[in-house]
Prior knowledge:
- By secondary structure, the protein is mostly beta strands.
- It has no helices and 11 strands.
- The chain has strands spanning 4-7, 10-13, 18-24, 32-39, 46-51, 57-59, 67-72, 77-82, 91-100, 109-110, 114-119.
- The strands form 2 sheets. Strands 2, 4, 5, 6, 9, 10 and 11 form a 7-stranded mixed sheet that branches.
- Strand 4 (32-39) and strand 5 (46-51) form a beta hairpin.
- The radius of gyration is 14 Å and the shape is globular.
- It starts with a strand and ends with a strand.
Amino acid sequence: QVQLVESGGGLVQAGGSLRLSCAASDNIFSIMVMGWYRQAPGNQRELVATVSSGGSTNYADSVKGRFTISRDNTKKLLYLQMNSLKPDDTAVYYCAALRDRWGNSGYNYWGHGTQVTVSS
């Protein structure tokens, strides 16, 4: 069982920045496609960004140009650098590992989430 633990959330003013981290407990991290998701009150959980084991990235349109996802496989850490934050970015942010580098999707590892609140 892989454990994922997020940190780095908090309260920030609009236009500010935060850096989220996600620590994984197992070396399987290095072969997993890792993702950041978020869920705002009353909304469904949505994908924010993903990064492959080799570093290829994808972003939701709403965060392109403002957020950067990255990973350190040797340290088993996932990051999300969030700049130019907007009140609409307010949500609980989760890291997740749902598929491996070969596309197998029989995984369902989630962290417990970290709250990000952006004030206007």
